[in-house]
Amino acid sequence: MTRPVSRLSIEDVSVDFGGIRALTDVSFGLESGSIVGLIGPNGAGKSTLLNCISGITRPTRGRVRLDETILSVLSASSVARHGIGRVFQHPELVTELSVHDNLLVACHRALDYGLIGELLRLPNVRQQERDAADKVADVLTRLGIGDSADKRVGSLPYGHRKLIDLGRALLMDIRFLLLDEPIAGLNDVEVARLGEILLGLRREFGLGILIVEHNMPFVSRLCDRLVVLDLGQLIANGPPADVLADAKVMASYLGEAADA
Ligand SMILES: Nc1ncnc2c1ncn2[C@@H]1O[C@H](COP(=O)(O)OP(=O)(O)OP(=O)(O)O)[C@@H](O)[C@H]1O
């Protein structure tokens, strides 16, 4: 069944941290089924914008909407329940637990069977647990790490851990996925695999994906569109080839190189 197209809208968002203006009147939209790269030099406001979308930071002005629902008045957990998944730069997993159990924990957060049902282990609880185990197995297969299901997370390489963190977001029935520097610390093979996984998620589930990433070859290959922030302002929004040839964008990156 094809899902209706959803739209995530960032509308005139500004964020002040005390005297620091991190974002100024930023507006753009992202539809389900599209992959958009959010780029810009260090300190441009990319993480602040991801935090605004996921309900961690409240905009000082402006708003974030998912179709008709205003997300920017909701808590982070409520935003997640509306289908906005977030994967952070550094995975936060329980290293003493197995891969399977880490994912099962994420699944249980999404389940709602109540304390009494759980204590009495009612039939619907057992069914939900079987469904959760099946979902975990599906996600592990999709990510190509089914063989590691029983391994302790702490024993796995960083690239695997990042995939497990992505798996946790996928278990939440999301419509949009926000990724913060997903390929930092990955080797070439892992980067290529992650690219394939993201394209598969868009193709099969129509996920909308917003990626903050400094690696230009990766974002230009993968993204339909790039949105560029510089000093908290949106300075370009368009197809990768056009954006990367834009004089303002080149100047903002050259400025960063000159400062380095
Ligand atoms: N909690 C905070 N309190 C005060 N200032 C903050 C806070 N978070 C971010 N800032 C400031 O807001 C601006 C934007 O920061 P942000 O981390 O969003 O940029 P970024 O584009 O994600 O940078 P990077 O690529 O280095 O991660 C910076 O000047 C930063 O110092």
TrEMBL record:
Q: Which CDD domains match?
A: ABC_Mj1267_LivG_branched
Tell me which residues make up the ABC transporter domain: 8-256
Does the record's keyword annotation contain Nucleotide-binding? yes
**One Gene Ontology MF term:** ATP binding
- Stored InterPro entries: AAA+_ATPase (IPR003593), ABC_AA/LPS_Transport (IPR051120), ABC_transporter-like_ATP-bd (IPR003439), BCA_ABC_TP_C (IPR032823), P-loop_NTPase (IPR027417)
Q: Which UniProt keywords apply?
A: ATP-binding, Nucleotide-binding, Transport
UniProt entry tagged with the keyword Nucleotide-binding: yes
The organism sits in which domain of life? Answer: Bacteria
Function (record text): Involved in beta-(1-->2)glucan export. Transmembrane domains (TMD) form a pore in the inner membrane and the ATP-binding domain (NBD) is responsible for energy generation.
The entry's protein name is: ABC transporter ATP-binding protein
Species name: Bradyrhizobium symbiodeficiens
